[in-house]
Amino acid sequence: MNDRISAQRAADSLEKPVSEAANLAHKLGLDPYRVNYWIVDYDEMNELIAYDGFQTRYPHWRWGMKYDRQQKQNQFLGGKAFEIVNNDDPSHAFLQESNSLADQKAVITHVEAHADFFAHNQWFGLFTGGGTPDAAAMLARHADAIAAFMRDPDIEREAVESWIDTIQCLETNIDRHRAFESASAEDAPRIEDDDIADRLDELDLGADVVSEVFDDDWLEAQREDEPSGAIPPEPEPDLLAFLFRHGMAYDEEREKAVEMEEWQRTVLELLRREAYYFAAQRMTKVMNEGWAAYWESMMMGEETFAGTDEFLSYADHQARVLASPGLNPYKLGKELWEYIENSVNRREVCERLLRVEGITWRNFHDVVDFETVAAALAPDPVIDRIAGDGLAAFDPDDPRVDGEVLAAAENGEIDVDRYPWKLLTYEGMAERHYSLAKPQNSGFLQRTSREELERISRYLFDDSRYGTVDEALADVEYAAGWDRLFEIRESHNDVTFLDEFLSQEFVDDNDYFTYEYTQATGDYRATSTDYEDVKKKLLLQFTNFGKPTITVQDGNYNNRNELLLAHHYNGVMLDVEQARQTLERVFDLWGRPVNLKTIVKELDDHDLEVAKRREREPDPDERGKLIRYDGESFTVEDLPWSEVEGIAATDVDYDTKPDEWLA
């Protein structure tokens, strides 16, 4: 009873912040799913984290393991669960009851931005086909179905759990770039030519009847259109779908492949569907977390959604999140969103200034007074310092001002001192928070390179000119940066986001670099600050969720019903031990021998010894290998380069060691 009363009090105290955070998000141009907030205690939060943000999942030991890991992380490493939100409509967010009010407000603003990203990013729309997600209900149905199999007296619970273990090891082997389709919805295979002849023979029809019903032209057309019979006809990235359609279960007692039981196929398809649902979150981790951190900072700090007595607590909250060690998606994402906003705004300003009489890309840095420009770009004091006693300065017809709210504020219905942003439209908010007017970005415009200025000038198709700098800056679109951010959040995933927008300027500003393990010295060393090298390393972390890209090549390899998989080599070798363990799992779903071709780097012992003496990195040889598992043992054989050159990337190499290391 006391727990329920405490939770209700916490919920009541957050009702106003939840409502106002949603209002503020819309003022800033966000358009999130409606969010339902739930107050949970410490144990419930750990359980939700273990369940990937949902209250119901299928029964399996993995959830208990994740729960135990989360508890130990909190207990021994000082971790703290601030929030968890799921991609659903409405979204559901869970707030830990013991968090401070400052933490809860930070979570709420963060969640509103997540819900906006869920609602508008096309990679999340792939799963639903553009429809409305109902993930909680879907996962609950899956849980009920799998629980029913476990209760079935004719099915061993251990067999179901073992089957789930096998599928989970392969859950990233889907076609993440395609919309989800049921594996059972594929077109039925066409009948082979000899099958047509066999069927006609079975009908025992006379030649005259055959010629009457099946004319020669039609039969010939079937032969011309008939595929080669290869399964699959093209490399198939969705391994789970292929195994659903063509795989068999290995029966250890009978020591042979048998048809999958109906429950096995059902569980395989249910977990494949869940893998597609969670794929978008894995594909947009940097974008999504950076997006939420960006808008949370805007709302909590710049719009003082955190009260005066809460700000220091909030600052500590965000500092801990952004300072997390390793590859931090919150920090990387937030910095890159801010850089893009600054870059777009800078281009907008440069386009205006380059139309001023007497200013060209050649003399730009000599004739432009950047302090004067900065002062001119600063937001109008009327909208920058809003106060209840200054309402007379606002024009209800000003596009930056919300006329209805102004009237309500004049009638005393709105506390403008506490919620000044209510008085502004999107245009007003964009000017109020214009990035190039912020102190931390004071040198960004002046840093514009001559190359960029020349490029901008080359594409100035508008012939209109300005007589003065002030006239040019008066036409600056304050919302240009935000408008571009909203466009990007709709279409990109982490790989395309980093590939398109990470630049040398960004790398230099934020001190990114690469490092490599050196064979010569046996340690790690910083290797490069070149943005192309940094980009390579980052893309390695996010392409295919950071996992090796595997495709199905042949379902009848060497005409023996063996499965041939291919690792698409990008300069990074497979972990051979993990590859073997994975092949064992694939064998369970194929029922027959499984083969994997890949490329490995091999170092000659003599070359390695020479490299160590000279403190130079050896240059390894790349060789094709075929790993085969027959259910009992592994074999590894060399493949001629001609058989693996099709899986070797010719223009991608994630090794960023300087050339002199390889001399």
TrEMBL record:
InterPro entries named in the record: Spore_V_R, SpoVR-like_C, SpoVR_N
State the Pfam families in the record.
SpoVR (PF04293), SpoVR_C (PF24755)
All copies of the SpoVR-like C-terminal domain together span 548-599
| Origin: domain of life | Archaea
Question: What positions does the domain SpoVR protein-like N-terminal occupy?
Answer: 12-348, 479-546
PANTHER family the UniProt entry points to:
STAGE V SPORULATION PROTEIN R
Q: What is this protein called?
A: Stage V sporulation protein R-like protein
Q: Supply the source organism for this entry.
A: Halococcus morrhuae DSM 1307
Q: What is the lineage of its organism?
A: Archaea, Methanobacteriati, Methanobacteriota, Stenosarchaea group, Halobacteria
